[in-house]
Amino acid sequence: MTNAPQSPVDWGEVPPPTEPAASRRPSRPVSAWTVLRVVVCAFGLLSLAYWGYLAWPFPFPGVLFMVGAPLFAAVVWFLFRSPRSPIDTDVVGKVIVEVALVIAGGAAWVSLGHPVVGLVFIVVAALSGVVAFRRETA
Questions:
Q1: Rg (CA), the chain
Q2: Is 92 within a domain?
Q3: Which end of the chain is more exposed for a tag (fewer CB within 10 A), N or C?
């Protein structure tokens, strides 16, 4: 692999090949906030799946909501909130999407009859969301 095509007149030494810029990623240390953020996101998706399992009759709508609710939430998060989202969204749009997804996960627990779990989830998700936004905009 060469960096650039060489003309027949340019008889200088060919530089060694380099890695493309897209394959090089700066390595960031994994912090406790990042781990908490991943746990909160996974718990939110599992909460929506659990809600779909318990709140709807099993054969037809139960499976649809058990798979569809977390899948819809993951796709919305990827499109509008993720660091590699294909749609460029400003800070306000990211906050709106994040709040809607957190409230959906908390509301799933409230509708199942566990309001304390829903409230704790919303508080922890809000805390990790605020820290994540502060780190992104710093």
A1: 22
A2: yes
A3: C
